[in-house]
Design goal:
Layout (H helix, E strand, L loop, with lengths): L7 H9 L12 E2 L1 H23 L7 H20 L1 E2 L13 E6 L4 E7 L10 E3 L3 H6 L7 E4 L2 E8 L1
Parallel strand pairs: 1-2, 4-5
Antiparallel strand pairs: 3-4, 3-7, 6-7
């Protein structure tokens, strides 16, 4: 069939059928900063939804409404399931705290263990369900762990 015979509305309707964002099966542990981030994302999703509704004709831009609705469902669910965890310093690697490791090749790396929605490895934070965090949780300075098949030593806990 020639492209000339396809209807624009059909393409728009297909784009509007966005699948839901996957929600993790793990407990939604969050730091105070992570909870604030979720609330900011929820507010942004509500604003996007209101803006999509205010445009008048939803049929004119079904993709924007579908995206806003999907994000609103996701962030509402994440806010509803959020479990705020206060950081407790006891000398071991904990949720919300930071850990410095020394790798076999001499590199030292510092990571903060946070909730899934606030994790950003490029900025030095990893999710509590990541293999790195799972290998290090509960460890103390001087303890060793295996991360990605390599031995690492915990050299700092914060």
């Amino acid at each position: 069939m020639s492209v000339a015979f396809t209807r624009e509305e059909d393409l728009e309707a297909t784009a509007a059928d966005l699948p839901d964002r996957p929600i993790s099966p793990h407990p939604n542990l969050v730091t105070g900063e992570g909870l604030a981030q979720i609330e900011a994302e929820l507010a942004a999703a509500r604003a996007a939804y209101a803006a999509a509704q205010a445009k008048g004709s939803i049929e004119a831009d079904r993709t924007a409404m579908a995206r806003a609705t999907r994000d609103l469902r996701y962030w509402s669910a994440r806010r509803a399931s959020a479990q705020l965890v206060e950081t407790q310093a006891d000398g071991s690697v904990r949720f919300g705290g930071s850990v410095t490791i020394a790798r076999e090749d001499g590199r030292a790396q510092t990571w903060r263990i946070v909730g899934e929605d606030e994790a950003d490895p490029a900025q030095g934070s990893v999710s509590h369900v990541s293999p790195l965090a799972r290998a290090l949780l509960g460890k103390r300075v001087g303890d060793e762990a295996v991360v990605n098949g390599q031995a690492v030593e915990v050299t700092g806990v914060g």
